[in-house]
Amino acid sequence: MSETTAHAQVQTAHAQAHSGQQHPIGLYFFVWGLLFVLSAASYMVDYLGVQSYLRWTLILVFMMLKAGLIVAVFMHMAWERLALVYAILLPPLLVLVFVALMVSEADYTIFTRIAFFGATP
Amino acid sequence: MAQTIETHGGADLRPSGLRGVAADFSSDQRAFKTATWGKAMMWIFLLSDTFVFGCFLIAYMTARMSTPVPWPNPSEVFALHIGGQDVPLILIAIMTFVLISSSGTMAMAVNFGYRRDRRTTAVLMLLTALLGACFVGMQAFEWTKLITEGVRPWENPWGAAQFGSTFFMITGFHGTHVTIGVIFLLIVARKVWRGDFDVERRGFFTSRKGRYEAVEIMGLYWHFVDLVWVFIFAFFYLW
Description:
The structure holds two protein chains of two kinds. Chain A is mainly α. Helices cover about 80% and strands about 0% of the residues of chain A. Chain A is built from five helices and no strands. Chain B is an all-alpha fold. Chain B is about 65% helix and about 5% strand. Chain B contains seven helices and two strands; from the N terminus they run H-H-H-E-E-H-H-H-H. Chain B has a two-stranded antiparallel sheet with strand order 1-2. The interface between A and B is large, with 64 and 68 residues.
């Protein structure tokens, strides 16, 4: 009886040690600083007037880096079990399928608009 | 050949990696071993919200790709006239920095919450709410500016008519999320200040014992609002 109680206590201690997300505060400041730098960088893309493929690549790279830092560190995803990480982060990838569908649809729409109404609306 | 996998012991005994995923989901117990149901439910809500904003951004992409009329240049549309010259996109840049700062103070609040530092947590949460309110204020200013310049959901002076409808829809929905977040922050900050989570005072609606995890769950929502802004900033304002 006392053995089971002791076992239960050990388990509770384990649970408490792992349920609280306690990380060094310096890490948050570091990520905070990085987010500032990345935001400034993406603003500079517009300010300096970078165009075309370089512009789109830079925007996407800075965006994904910022999103990754926020989710991994600020939202503590880096310290969660893989089951939760996969359950939450994999489904949004399906949005990319939707994007592909709508790119094809939009291409068709602009094609028919130009074909029927001419280059000018 | 059958192997048994520890699924309910101490956290250190659980397998990691893909074996861990399989073990957690097939354990005939709760699947998310280290996340309480409150945290898991917030994550699942945020996942559904991701799809909502995903649909808005896809609708915007479709409208912008399929119109033969030139799209208004956001860099010029959102420029402000400061000191005798137009500074491109400056208000949006300031809004971005304000929201990132609020995310930083929120992360600090969660950290101090788990240290059971009641006052610092509450002050940081109020600071987060203040920055959030600033953001909404600047958004109201931006809306007013655009409306006086003649932007409507059905027309605008610079180009494709869909610009107005997507702009009001996307930023409006995001602004609503920020506003709800500010209210949510004030409610949780009050509970922290009052010491609800130190004495495990029961919630008036749920009757569940108050715990500092509420601050982290609140933080998840707030960081998500910041996360959505990252995507709106990239696709709507910079693209």
